[in-house]
Write a structure and sequence with these properties.
The complex is a heterodimer of chains A (145) and B (402).
Chain A lengths: L2 E4 L4 E2 L5 E7 L5 E2 L15 E5 L3 E10 L10 E8 L2 E7 L14 E11 L4 E10 L15
Chain B lengths: L4 E8 L10 H16 L8 E5 L8 H9 L6 E4 L5 H14 L5 E8 L32 H4 L5 H15 L6 H15 L14 H6 L2 E4 L1 E2 L9 E9 H4 L4 H6 L1 E10 L14 H14 L8 E3 L5 H10 L8 H6 L16 H4 L4 H16 L13 E8 L3 E9 L2
Parallel strand pairs in B: 2-3, 2-4, 9-10
Antiparallel strand pairs in B: 1-7, 1-8, 4-7, 5-6, 8-11, 10-11
Chain lengths: 145, 402
């Protein structure tokens, strides 16, 4: 069976893939990268992993059309609010077009294969996709909801 | 009572392409211009602060000395992203406030023509290369492009749209930000030192190359070459100079530098607002100036989306009222509070290390009544703001000599 590696260490690949944050034991500030001490309170008490919900709200986005070499364009980059914890991610399974996106729309975590290396290891990436809704979240002019 | 510090002389080079001049040529031109403008020589200068971001490892301050005068004074080479120029200026001001110098020189310089996207490097991963987690995120591929964007146009696009999310806007974002850019491109037609001096129509701006929605190319700061310099002086030393020098001197009523305090989302999208608001509040208090007292503002419009939010951050409007302020026409050069009459970073250009002194030079021109065809009549108080991602915010409030 193929082995998998997550795009980032804060993506957990289990039955239901999800993101985790490292939470300061003192002030509960949350981080995704390794920290030497807490940037919020300065505590050196350490961090605990906490799971994040897989559904949230699109706080802002952009459609990147000009990028560094090797980065496929256009793509939608965003900030998603997961119940009070903000994460940075691409928007996936949606057209990278302002008319398809609306600030405040609900989105959910989605994972995808980034390819398999020569050793048979498959990298798994993540992004957020729009949650189907009865009422469209897109405003008539495709701008801001 | 701390020493009041004044700007005695200032100069900026033409911003644009300078293929025949190297970094030190540009720095020399600005420094010699500022010294001449102040009526002093390099032998009068007791401290030098030099700002440059991308020029290389060697100290630009000492390189500059080797062209205009090696006098043995202390030199500080400073870098603080796009706030580098303001940081150099403030460093020279601090030396005077500390009583270590009566006269100081601050220089900011950059060669950026043709630099393209800053801050991202891209990737050339081969198909079979092993996935190898590395760095503090343990990522197997670049974060930029796979986990959102780290391109400056993309970062500031999100910052601008987030403002429209937090303060709901019913219009079309692209057109709103294009109108802000239209203003600055109109302003620069009166600035012969600007990199771009052609007026652009709203349609041209909206239909130009899309870089990161809603920022099209003319809505992005222009990478270019340029330098700016300022001679600063203590009040005591200024009092011994000629009436002409005292009349043209500009009072530095506030010089503030902040970094970003931790905020919930700052690790995923830079929060350029909190540190700007804190710097602005500190600057207004230090100067005893109310935002309503300002006659002109040069703010850090690295992108059209940034200008909008800084109206709010600099308290030029009611909280949440940035769109209304802009729609009122107040920030055009004939409005109540002209913003970026130089053309701003979008049109005057943004040679990173020079920007934080060039905007101070611009304010000085108006306060001295030497603004030429773009003079804001009767200007007595102005504010210059820069922000460098990472982050640093520099604000200087300047006042006409009494």
């Amino acid at each position: 069976m193929s082995r998998q590696v997550p795009l980032v260490s804060y993506l957990v690949l289990d039955e239901r893939p999800h993101l985790i944050a490292r939470q300061c034991r003192q002030c509960r500030a949350r981080f995704f990268d390794r920290r030497n001490a807490c940037a919020s309170c300065g505590s050196q008490a350490g961090f605990d992993d906490v799971g994040l919900p897989d559904e949230g709200v699109l706080r802002t986005f952009t459609i990147v059309s000009v990028a560094a070499p090797g980065v496929p364009v256009p793509y939608a980059a965003s900030v998603v609010d997961l119940a009070g914890t903000s994460v940075r991610a691409n928007l996936v399974n949606v057209k990278p077009d302002p008319a398809s996106l609306a600030l405040g729309m609900r989105v959910r975590l989605s994972t995808f294969s980034m390819g398999t290396d020569a050793a048979g290891v498959e990298a798994i990436g993540f992004g957020f996709e729009p949650v189907e809704q009865a009422e469209p979240a897109v405003s008539p002019e495709g701008g801001v909801a | 009572m701390p020493e009041t510090v004044w700007i005695l002389g200032a100069h900026m080079t033409k911003f644009g392409k300078h293929p025949d001049k190297d970094l030190v040529d540009l720095a020399s031109e600005a420094a010699l211009g500022a010294l001449a403008d102040g009526g002093v020589s390099i032998h009068d200068i007791q401290v030098l602060a030099a700002g440059n971001v991308t020029g290389g490892p060697a100290g630009v301050g000492q390189q500059l000395q080797k062209q205009i005068g090696q006098t043995g004074i202390p030199v500080y080479n400073v870098t603080n992203a796009c706030a580098t120029g303001a940081t150099a200026l403030r460093t020279s001001i601090l030396a005077i406030k500390a009583g270590e110098a009566d006269l100081g020189l601050a220089v900011g310089v950059e060669k950026l023509s043709g630099a393209g996207l800053l801050g991202v490097t891209g990737t050339q991963r081969g198909d079979d290369e092993p996935w190898h987690p590395s760095g503090r995120f343990g990522n197997v591929a670049p974060m930029d492009g796979w986990v959102g964007t780290e391109t400056m146009p993309g970062v500031f696009a999100q910052i601008g749209l987030q403002y429209l999310h937090d303060h709901p806007y019913s219009g079309a974002p692209l057109e709103l930000f294009a109108r802000i850019s239209e203003k600055n491109h109109a302003h620069s037609t009166l600035n012969p030192l600007a990199a771009y001096t052609k007026r652009m129509s709203l349609e041209q701006i909206m239909n130009d190359v899309m870089v990161a929605y809603p920022n099209t190319r003319p809505m992005c700061s222009a990478n270019c070459d340029g330098a700016a310099a300022a001679v600063v002086i203590s009040g005591a030393a200024l009092s011994r100079l000629s009436a002409q020098q005292r009349r043209r001197a500009v009072k530095i009523s506030a010089s503030i530098l902040t970094s970003d305090p931790w905020r919930e989302a700052c690790q995923v999208l830079p929060d350029v607002s909190t540190l700007t608001r804190q710097a602005a509040a500190a600057a207004y208090e230090a100067a005893g100036i109310d935002p309503a007292d300002l006659d002109l503002v040069e703010l850090h419009d690295c992108f059209a989306t940034a200008e909008l939010i800084h109206y709010d951050n600099l308290m030029l409007c009611e909280p949440g009222g940035a769109v209304d302020l802009f729609d009122s026409g107040a920030t055009w050069r004939d409005g109540r509070l002209p913003v970026n009459v130089s053309g701003g970073l979008q049109s005057k250009g943004h040679p990173i290390g020079a920007t934080g002194i060039a905007n101070v030079w611009e304010i000085c021109q108006h306060l001295r009544g030497e603004g030429g065809q773009r003079q804001i009549d009767g200007a007595r108080v102005g504010l210059a703001h820069v922000i460098g991602l990472g982050q640093a915010c520099g604000i200087h409030i300047l006042e006409k000599a009494a």
